[in-house]
Structure formats: C-alpha cells, structure tokens
From TrEMBL:
PROSITE patterns: FBOX (PS50181). The lineage of its organism: Eukaryota, Metazoa, Ecdysozoa, Arthropoda, Hexapoda. SMART domains: FBOX (SM00256). Pfam families: F-box-like (PF12937). Residues 18-64 form the F-box domain. It comes from Frankliniella occidentalis (Western flower thrips). This is Uncharacterized protein LOC127750277 isoform X2.
Length: 477
C-alpha cells in the first residue's frame, strides 16, 4: 500500500504561524494587542521573545480593565485603565502595595472591613498615588458595620491622596446617625487642588472628611454630589466660594443660602428630605437668590408630612421672586405619599405655586412635574404665561390614551402649538373604553410591559424649532 504521509517540515503549524506573525512590524502587533484582555496579554509573553516584549508595552495596557485582584497582573503589567478590588478577597496577595502597575481608575470595595489588613490597603492606595497615574478613586464602605477607628483611618488616607480628578465614596449607611471621627484633619503642607468631581453618599457626622475634601480642592471642583446630611454651615460656605463649580446635587445643608455666592453654578439639584425646618428655609432663601442657575431639580421623595410639602411650595414660589431668573429647565418631584386632608391642601399649594411662578420664569424651556396636574394648572399654561416653554413632562394618573382624549387636554395642546408633552406610557393591554377605539396607533408601538416615553404635539416635525423632542415616539394629535 502506498504511503500518504507528508514529509516532515521540522515545524508545527502553530509554530509556523507564530514565526510568520513575528515578521509583522511592532506597530501592527501593538495595534492588535490593544484589543486583548489582561489574560490574553499575559499568555502572549510565552509565545516568543518579540511577543513577550510587546505584551508588556505600556501602550497595550493603558486601555485594559481588570475586575478582580490578580497577582500576575500586579507583578507584570506596567499600567491599567481600571482596577476593581474586593479587599476582603485579597487573601495573602501582598503585591498590591508593592506593584509597579500604575492604575488610572481604582475601585476598592471594603465591606465592613473585617479581616482586612488596613495598613496594607492604605499602603496600596499610597503606592498608586506615588506611581503618578491615579486620577479616579472609588471607595465602597459598609458605614453601618465598619468600626469607627477603621473608618476614620481609611477616610483620612483617601482624603490625602494627591492628583485625583474624581473621588467617589459611598456605601450602606444610616442618614440619621454615623460614627464620631474626631477632630478636623491637620495638614503639614497644602494638598494641590486637582479634584473636578466629588461624589459622597454616606451617613451623617462625616463633616470633617467632606469639608476637608471640599476645602482642599475648592479651586478646581466642577461637580459635587452630596447624599449625606451635614451638621454645620461650613459645607455650604465652602461650596459658595468655589470659582469653577457648575453642578451641585445635594441634600439641603445648614446655611444653604451661602451657596448662592457661587456664580459659576448652572445646575442645582436639591434633595429636601430629612432636614430641619431652619435648613429648609435656608433652601428657600437660596432659591430666591440663584438667578444665574439655568437647570433646577427639587426632590422630596420621602416627604413625611404636609409641613414638608408646604416648604416645597415655598421653594417653587421662591424661584419667581425676581424677574432675573435664568432657569431654562425645571424638574419638580414632590412625591405623592402624604395622605389625608392636610396632604390634599399641601398638594393644592404646590399646584398653586406652579401656576403662580410660571409667568415669572420667562426663560423656562422645559418643565417636568411628577404629579397629575389638575385641569386648572393645564389651563394656566399658555404662550403668554410661558412663552419659551417647549417641553412639559407629566405623569397622568389615568390611562395615557384616555388622558389624551380628554377635552381639557385637547384644548391645552391647541392653545400651545409649539409645546411637546412628554408622557410615560406602559403598553400593557388596557380595558378602558378609549383603548378599544381604533386611533392613536403609535401608542401601541412599544413592546408589551415596556415603560417608555412619548411626546404629544399638534405640529409636524418639519415645522418644529425643537426637533429633539420628536424622538423616540411622537404622536401628532
């Protein structure tokens, strides 16, 4: 029988492939490697000398993200775009505090801190700081369970990290209480101001940490998110003195009126829950004075009584205290959880405040209200009372299709030919009489059970000066 065996070439197909790839220019190989994962790059080290050298080139690692602790990465990788570490799962790996792998964005999950070598973790943070590439730091902590001593040491280490542009601290917490962390931080030399964004969502009594960060980076901060009650007016005073702050999302702070001094502020989102009456009134004063802010959101999701809603109505009225208001976008989210006769009266005050303030907000282009507006409010909205208004977001309590057929709604749309009414709509089958009629077929375009948003208007898109409101679904009525 004639043999079909092929002559030996001395090299396997895999080896021939590697040798042929080895002939490619470095820049071509590097371009391909930029799409590899960390595991792929570490395997490439074993293929050949050229691949081993290129696989450790910083250019291919700058975009790599690693979602868990990896000793080989800590030992071999020159840099990373993102690293997430659950510090309670680090085990015996000590490379994080000695690594030369420079991370741009570091996310540390501490949990309650039990079993964590805090000294090692603080050294790891300081190591990344010393490598000079760390720009974003996120720390997740169980504020309810972590011991005060451990938390104090951790937050102090985080506060003193130099060179950051974004800092986020959050975790499970109790908004009404928190650990006592001692005196204010003392610094031997000023910390360079580099932070652009600070997000803090935690428990009360952490003023020292928050105020140190705000004070140290006051010159550069552009965006602040504070979801933790502060105890002193120092926080608001620091915010009021910031020259570059553009966006503030915060609970009402003691001495909130001081924030009005921040002339660069353009976006203001206030959470009205939990503060005492004096702090709420400080918020009213602030809204009377921030004429330069163009985007305002007022939230009180967890209003506990009618008194809190009454203050909410005062805040709405405060926006129109002068004709200098430059507000273009206004979102009102008062919640709907206060019941009884007192609650009804408070909601009527809110509706009355909306009606009263609209003619005084000449620049207002977008309005959103998370309540079912009564007919008298809809009737009060006209091109004369709201000349710049182009979008209004509403939440009717009835079927949206039935709401569209109401006579007062038809008159409202006809009276405002340039207006787009944004409505949430859930396309589950509805058994109401209106939904049995063969009309407004666009209302049935969404998938069953999917909550989506549509716009109602009385004009054609080609005739519209605000085409952005004709997406995703626009129903002409």
């Amino acid at each position: 029988m004639e043999s079909t065996a092929q002559p030996a070439t001395g090299a396997s197909p895999a080896r021939e492939t590697v040798e042929s790839l080895d002939q490619l220019p470095d820049k071509v190989i590097l371009k391909v490697m930029k799409n590899f994962t960390a595991e792929d790059l570490l395997r490439c080290r074993l293929l050949c000398k050229k691949f081993g050298r290129l696989a450790l080139d910083p250019a291919v690692w700058r975009g790599v993200s690693v979602g868990e602790a990896s000793c080989p990465v800590f030992r071999l990788a020159p840099c990373l775009s993102f690293l997430r570490v659950d510090v309670q799962q680090l085990g015996h790996c000590k490379h994080l505090r000695t690594t030369n792998c420079a991370v741009r964005e570091l996310e540390l999950k501490f949990g309650d801190g039990d079993g964590v070598d805090l000294k090692q973790l603080i050294e790891s943070i300081q190591r990344q700081e010393s490598l000079g590439r760390l720009k974003e730091l996120e720390v997740e902590v169980d504020f309810l369970q972590m011991k005060s001593r451990v938390l104090a040491a951790l937050l102090k280490a985080v506060a003193f990290v130099a060179g950051l542009e974004r800092l986020r601290v959050y975790g499970d917490s109790d908004m009404h209480k928190g650990p006592a962390l001692g005196a204010a931080y003392a610094v031997r030399s000023p910390l360079p101001s580099t932070l652009k964004e600070f997000r803090f969502m935690a428990c009360a009594r952490l003023d020292n940490f928050v105020n140190f960060v705000l004070g140290a980076h006051a010159a550069t901060l552009e965006k602040i998110f504070l979801m933790g009650p502060m105890c002193t007016p120092e926080t608001a005073r620091l915010i009021g003195g910031m020259p570059k702050l553009q966006d503030l999302d915060s609970y009402l702070l003691p001495g909130m009126e001081a924030v009005a001094a921040c002339e660069s502020l353009s976006i203001l989102h206030l959470e009205l829950d939990f503060p005492n009456h004096a702090t709420q009134l400080g918020g009213v004063t602030l809204l009377r004075e921030v004429h330069h802010v163009t985007d305002i959101t007022l939230d009180t999701y967890f209003a506990e009584d009618s008194a809190q809603l009454d203050v909410y109505a005062l805040m709405i009225l405060a926006l129109g205290s002068s004709r200098q208001s430059q507000v273009k976008k206004l979102r009102l989210r008062p919640g709907s959880y206060v019941s009884g006769e007192a609650g009804k009266r408070s909601y009527q005050r809110i509706f009355g405040a909306v009606t009263d303030v609209l003619p005084k907000l000449a620049a207002l282009q977008e309005l959103s209200v998370t309540l079912d507006l009564p007919d008298e409010v809809l009737q009060a909205i006209t091109p004369e009372t709201a000349p710049a208004l182009r979008r209004i977001g509403l939440v009717p309590s009835m079927c949206v299709h039935a709401w569209v057929h109401r006579g007062v709604v038809s008159k409202f749309l006809s009276a405002n030919p340039s207006l787009h009414v944004a409505l949430p709509h859930k396309s589950n089958p509805c058994t109401c009489q209106v939904c049995t009629e063969d009309c407004h077929q666009d209302l049935r375009k969404a998938k069953r059970g999917h909550l989506w948003r549509m716009y109602l208007c009385t004009h054609l898109e080609d005739d519209c000066d605000s085409p952005e409101y004709h997406d995703p679904v626009t129903v002409q009525v």
